[in-house]
TrEMBL record:
This is GTP cyclohydrolase 1 type 2 homolog. It comes from Fictibacillus arsenicus. The keyword RNA-binding does not apply. GO terms for molecular function: metal ion binding. Gene3D superfamilies: NIF3 (NGG1p interacting factor 3)-like.
């Protein structure tokens, strides 16, 4: 798969979402090298550590959900320098991957074995909207927590704010720490809201609203969406090898 082949595949995968977020810094190459890409590594984040692991894996192309954003002062520059030195392209795709049908929300729902996704996560009126799914057989508070911890392979913070079984859940992966998102879950009669970050106010509001709150890490609630992206690429170019980069669980304090 040549780099230009990969680039030309993107519109068929992401459709309108590339246009929606065009010129907003939500996707693109930080390092683009036209070459034959046989080994494609993927991770949630672009960091010196994920670049080093991509180098050690002899990757030709690194896919991530996040750029090394401008507020991570100097990190992008260091990453790009190492990528160029080792002849590795890097492509990130942020909000389009959050809202495409196979993206981060849908992928996490699939990991926790939801039975029915009734609405996809979306971006409407410049606002993020969680996805909603239903368990045909309701789970207990602890059963859902255990299922998340098994799939994310890390501790999950959870707050039980009612005694009902969990049948309907909302998800916004990553930084879903806005109380507006929990209100959306409540207004849509969800028993639980699952995300990757919290604040004092999101915890307070979830308690007030009577919605069970589950918080994994930003990194690991989103990795399955990147994996789904890689698999979509492999469907078109089956000869590529996909390599998952193992990131440290730094948000939960667990570093390998």
């Amino acid at each position: 798969m040549k780099t230009s082949d990969f680039e030309q595949l993107l519109p068929s995968l992401f459709g309108k979402w590339l246009t929606t977020f065009e010129d907003e810094g939500e996707y693109g190459f930080t390092c683009r090298i036209e070459k034959d890409n046989k080994r494609v590594a993927y991770a949630t984040n672009l960091t010196p550590e994920t670049v080093e692991k991509a180098i050690n894996a002899n990757a030709d192309l690194l896919l991530t959900h996040h750029d090394a954003w401008d507020f991570l002062y100097g990190m992008r520059e260091e990453c790009v320098a190492e990528l160029k030195k080792n002849d590795i392209s890097h492509f990130f795709i942020h909000l389009p991957l959050d809202f495409v049908e196979f993206g981060t929300c849908t992928s996490l729902f699939e990991q926790i074995e939801i039975d029915e996704i009734t609405s996809l996560s979306a971006f409407e009126h410049d606002t993020e909207v969680p996805g909603i799914g239903i368990f045909h057989k309701a789970l207990s508070f602890s059963e859902l927590k255990n299922r998340l911890e098994l799939k994310l392979d890390e501790p999950v913070r959870a707050w039980q704010n009612h005694d009902r079984p969990i049948k309907k859940a909302a998800i916004l992966t990553g930084a879903g720490n806005n109380s507006r998102l929990i209100k959306f879950a409540k207004d849509n009669n969800c028993d639980a809201f699952i995300t990757g970050e919290r604040t004092l106010y999101s915890v307070q509001y979830a308690k007030f609203a009577g919605v069970n709150l589950y918080v994994g890490s930003h990194t690991y609630t989103e990795i399955f969406g990147v994996e789904s992206f890689g698999r979509k690429v492999k469907e078109t170019y089956p000869d590529i090898e996909l390599i998952r980069i193992k990131e440290d669980h730094i948000e939960s304090g667990e570093v390998n």
